[in-house]
UniProtKB/TrEMBL annotation:
Belongs to the major royal jelly protein family. It is found in: Secreted. This is NHL repeat-containing protein. It comes from Dendrothele bispora (strain CBS 962.96). Keywords: Secreted, Signal.
Length: 423
């Protein structure tokens, strides 16, 4: 027993005598992440009040921004034109942005979105077409206190077009949707246009809309206003179950006031969100917001109405192609006329690119200022513009509490390509 004790004491003495005493060093490892990569990021506009969602920069330099809203008093405009470095003005007017009956209807005892088709309720996206016309998509679903969206009713969700080449402020067209095309929990998220005359009998071209709420793609004949639905609730347009992103290094569960749980699958749908058309118009590239997977679908089978040919549903689904993982979740997508697809990457404070020729996803630009890149817009001045809005710190993700820090921003980076305007 004594020998054991002596051996133990001897070992402890040896260990103590040879223990390393660590002290802080002035030197650093050879590689340290400074959070930046690629071209310089420029701040071109600051939003001192409301966080921006959509951005559209036209060929004439006019720029329009959308704001999600739920309260007319604190956010009177949901579509606005940027007029200088810190100011925006409601477009086409404050009156058009102010539905007389308010943003919601509670007459049934339930809170529903307004059915007003003559005023904006909650505009998500604004995009220019090849004729210089500005189109705005209104979800019809305002943001309630705490971050949730009430169900929509027909009339409220709509596509509204303005002919800016004539400096018009009255819509030349308003298109609404039947419930079999856009269900009550549908959410009109983003839109792309192809005005090629040979696509439909009307000769006026089509619009493709990503429905992130009910998970699918909506196609519109811009001549007749008729719409139809494809890829309804298939896996590629739907959220990945238990998706968990990390934002600014923190795993982020999506939890709103009415749904204080892990539920990326339910808030605003979680479905198809990133959305872009190829430079030749033959493909739509997309991803759900609750996913890290990149897909594309051929546009040709989407042009066939299921009511005319029920087998078109199968052909459209069979034309979906899985292009691989993106290395992170994405929000907005955009295309330039070189064929490059730009992919926002909120998890990495970056924007990546996808090259259809090589199949590679590559880092394009990264900067700590890119705090949730939302919508991207390629302009003809040699820049890619994008909004940053700290979306993961909004009530939608933070149990109803707003943790965002003002101001928000419109940023831009130089690129080689120009905008894609089909038709």
């Amino acid at each position: 027993m004594t020998m054991r004790k002596n051996a133990l004491l001897s070992f402890l003495s040896y260990a103590l005598a040879n223990a390393v005493k660590f002290t802080p060093l002035d030197d650093k490892p050879g590689l340290i992440d400074n959070g930046t990569f690629g071209p310089a990021v420029e701040v071109v506009h600051l939003f001192e009040d409301q966080p921006p969602i959509g951005i559209a920069v036209g060929d004439d330099g006019r720029a329009f921004v959308t704001f999600n809203r739920g309260d007319l008093a604190t956010n009177p405009s949901t579509l606005a034109e940027i007029v200088n470095s810190t100011a925006e003005t409601p477009f086409p007017s404050l009156e058009f942005n102010t539905p007389p009956g308010g943003l919601v209807n509670t007459s049934s005892g339930r809170t529903l979105g307004s059915s007003d088709s003559n005023h904006f309720i909650n505009v998500q996206s604004a995009v220019f077409d090849a004729r210089g016309r500005l189109w705005a998509i209104d979800t019809g679903r305002p943001v309630l206190t705490g971050g949730d969206n009430p169900p929509a009713v027909p009339g409220g969700p709509k596509l509204v077009g303005f002919d800016l080449t004539q400096n018009e402020t009255t819509p030349f067209k308003t298109i609404t949707f039947p419930e079999n095309v856009l269900p009550a929990l549908g959410y009109l998220n983003d839109i792309r246009f192809d005005l090629s005359a040979n696509l439909t009998a009307s000769g006026e071209g089509v619009a493709y809309i990503a429905d992130s709420g009910a998970h699918g793609i909506i196609v519109i004949d811009l001549g007749t206003g008729e719409s139809w639905r494809h890829l309804d609730q298939i896996r590629s347009v739907s959220p990945v179950s238990q998706f968990l992103p990390s934002l600014f290094g923190s795993p982020t569960y999506q939890a709103s006031a009415l749904n204080p749980a892990f539920h990326w699958e339910t808030v605003a749908g979680g479905g198809i969100d990133g959305f872009a058309i190829s430079a030749d118009g033959k493909f739509l590239y997309f991803t759900p917001i609750a996913s890290r997977e990149l897909y594309r679908v051929e546009t040709a089978p989407l042009l066939v109405k299921p009511s005319d040919d029920p087998f078109s549903v199968i052909r459209a689904i069979n034309s979906v192609q899985f292009l691989g993982q993106m290395g992170g979740g994405a929000d907005g997508f955009e295309t330039d006329d070189t064929g490059t697809i730009y992919l926002s990457s909120p998890e990495h404070n970056s924007i990546n690119t996808y090259n259809p020729k090589t199949g590679l996803v590559e880092l394009f630009v990264r900067d700590p200022m890119i705090a949730w890149p939302d919508t991207l817009s390629v302009a003809n001045d040699g820049f890619l513009y994008f909004t940053v809005n700290q979306l993961w710190l909004s009530p939608l993700y933070q149990n109803g509490t707003d943790k965002r820090v003002k101001p928000f921003a419109l940023l831009r980076v130089p690129i080689q390509g120009g905008p894609v305007r089909l038709g």
